[in-house]
Specification:
heterodimer; A: about 230 residues; mainly alpha; two-stranded antiparallel ribbon; 10 helices; about 0% strand; B: about 400 residues; alpha+beta; Sufe protein. Chain: A; five-stranded antiparallel beta sheet; about 20% strand
Chain lengths: ~230, ~400
């Protein structure tokens, strides 16, 4: 486990394997909470907390959890942490709790978390899994922040609830609505793809073999393999 | 088999550990969350009861409160806040009402509803510093009678509820229930089923009469006293002698009265208001009138096209015995007050010389005038019928 390797695990989540903009995971919460910067930031942090905890525990238990029931086990662990985070937010940050609403519970089925459990934590050591959780969490938070900034500034003429002079006179509410969200999301993906052109490694874990269903899938996977 | 056991065990262990962690977290956060919720509710409650401290939700199942009370909160100074649900012009009119420890209304706030007039949002202010004793002085708003009456009644319910929660007792029955309960007490044999009868004969000071639906007798209302009689007019229940004498003097006449229809087509001068006329066995006249109120003479786009149907009994000397509105389609919340006993009972005992002095329905001049015109025709009709008979 070289230092360099650890660094790359941490950093890849931020751009090269950004869960939202490159892996296209967690689209639902991304679109739902990015109409406000504060909502996006708190959702990012909440998801990161769950991600780090679940990655750690799943990685710790990876030899104990039987392969056949790994998904139920992951879900139990993840939903447990989500509920803990939810209770803590409700108790200590009631405003944020009200802001995130139902999407807080939906972190349970956020595919980033289940995806990282399946792709990474279930196969790697605790240290690496924690780094992966932090990296992916930061990547998720930054992506949400970027999208939310664009949407809130243009759509509401404010940033994190603070009104921006001049822009607030010309706000375009379309951007805080669902279609605006999809549009900004799409443009962000395009920008990231352009920025990382040729550098995004089609890693095994991201390609067909990395697919959670790879073990049972025997048609599409084979074809992809042959083509490769 | 061994594999299966491992699968079951691992899932069980993981679930149990997670459950334990959740229980621990909940133990820490539950009191804090509860506090937040209380302070959030407390904030809303403070709006209507600013001096309230430490609001606690009251378990309503222990009390018999008016149906409008949805939720109640008590506070340290003996005051209460009520969430009230009533129906005004639309359904589900929600109000918050704060009452302090002295039984004084400190705030009424309109929360939500389907009212359309806008007056509901400010009408609550009129109840500031009102008590159960002087709430009747708060006037409803003409043109928004339904909404404001509903709000006023809801505040009355809140005032009553505060008394009940404070350990007192209040009569929370509505008028119809009170009437029926009194009738039931006077004549238990009727088993609570009564029909009002239209009095056509001399009635003294009797204000209303009811017949038991199972023919067990009659109940006459004499001021505050409910006097029950058998089918021959003999008093059954224990009442003071004056009331007994007074009722027995007229009861038999009222009970045994019969009517014969008079053909009015033969009277050329008969006013058109008169639809049907009857002569009673006691020599009085009963007339069925139609009055052109707002339904006929109102604004051409809002009138209903229907007459007010009135039934009136008059002595041959021209004194009104009973007057009652049978049907009407006047403006809702305004002219439809002509169907209320408070309005038509004003005509009882009136003569041609003074019937015009009754109180008009506020905001419904056309309805009131139409009604009065029909009544004036009734006096004319009686003179014609007397002359012709």
């Amino acid at each position: 486990m070289s230092k360099n390797n650890n660094m790359s695990i941490l950093l890849k989540g931020i751009l090269l394997e950004n869960p939202v903009l490159v892996l296209i995971l967690g689209t639902c919460p991304t679109l739902a909470v990015t109409n406000s910067v504060i909502g996006a930031f708190s959702m990012g942090l909440a998801a990161m907390a769950v991600l780090i905890c679940s990655n750690t525990v799943i990685s710790l238990l990876r030899k104990f959890i039987p392969d056949t029931v790994r998904i139920p086990c992951y879900i139990v662990i993840i939903s447990g942490f989500v509920t803990i985070v939810k209770l803590l937010i409700h108790a200590f940050f009631p405003e944020i709790y009200a802001l995130l609403g139902v999407y807080l519970d939906l972190i349970t089925v956020n595919c980033i978390i289940l995806g990282r459990a399946e792709i990474f934590a279930g196969k790697n050591t605790v240290g690496k899994s924690v780094l992966d959780g932090i990296g992916m969490g930061i990547g998720f938070t930054l992506a949400l922040l970027a999208i939310a900034t664009v949407r809130e500034v243009i759509g509401l003429g404010s940033f994190a609830g603070m009104e921006i002079p001049f822009i607030s006179d010309y706000k375009i509410e379309f951007f805080v609505k669902a279609p605006g969200g999809l549009m900004v999301y799409g443009i962000m993906i395009a920008i990231v793809t352009a920025l990382t052109k040729g550098k995004v490694p089609m890693k095994k874990e991201f390609a067909c073999e990395g697919c959670p269903s790879a073990g049972v899938c025997n048609t599409a996977c084979k074809q992809v393999k042959e083509e490769n | 088999m061994k594999h299966n056991i491992k699968v079951v065990l691992s899932l069980t262990i993981i679930s149990s550990v997670m459950a334990l962690l959740l229980a621990l977290t909940n133990a820490i956060t539950a009191p804090i969350i509860k506090e937040h919720e209380n302070s959030a509710v407390g904030g809303a409650l403070k709006e209507v009861l600013p001096e309230g401290e430490n609001f606690v939700s009251v378990d309503l199942s222990k009390y018999d409160l008016p149906e409008t009370v949805e939720e109640a909160y008590s506070e340290d100074n003996g005051g209460y806040v009520f969430k009230l649900k009533t129906a005004g012009y639309g359904a589900d009119l929600i109000l918050m009402c704060g009452i302090d420890g002295e039984g004084v209304v400190k705030g009424v706030q309109y929360i939500s509803g389907n009212e359309t007039l806008g007056v509901e949002t400010t009408y609550g202010e009129k109840f500031n510093d009102v008590t159960a004793e002087n709430i009747e002085n708060v006037e409803t708003v003409t043109g928004a009678t339904k909404t404001t009456t509903a709000m006023k009644n809801a505040v009355k319910d809140a005032l009553n509820s505060a008394i009940i929660l404070g350990g007192g007792s209040v009569d929370i029955r509505d008028e119809a229930t009170i009437l029926n309960d009194n009738l039931k007490t006077a004549l238990p044999a009727a088993e609570g089923k009564f029909a009002e009868i239209f009095i056509t004969e001399k009635k003294g000071n009797i204000s209303a009469a009811y017949k038991a639906e199972n023919n067990t007798g009659y109940v006459f209302i004499l001021g505050e006293i409910f006097v029950a009689t058998d089918n021959n007019g003999a008093v059954l229940n224990a009442v003071d002698d004056t009331a007994k004498t007074e009722v027995e003097a007229v009861a038999a006449g009222i009970i045994n009265s019969t009517m014969t229809e008079i053909d009015i087509s033969g009277f050329a001068d008969m006013p058109t208001h008169v639809q049907k006329a009857y002569k009673t066995s006691g020599g009085n006249y009963v007339l069925e009138l139609r009055a052109a109120g707002y339904g006929i003479n109102g604004d051409k786009y809002t009138r209903s096209g229907e007459y007010i149907q009135i039934k009136v009994s008059i002595t041959a000397d021209g004194e009104i015995i009973t007057c009652k509105t049978i049907s009407q389609k006047e403006s809702e919340g305004i002219g439809d007050a002509c169907a209320k006993p408070e309005f038509y009972n004003q005509f009882t005992g009136r003569l041609e010389s003074n019937y015009g002095e009754i109180d008009a329905i506020s905001g419904a001049t056309i309805t009131t005038n139409g009604f009065k015109t029909a009544i004036s025709s009734a006096f004319t009709a009686v003179k014609i019928l007397k002359g012709g008979a």
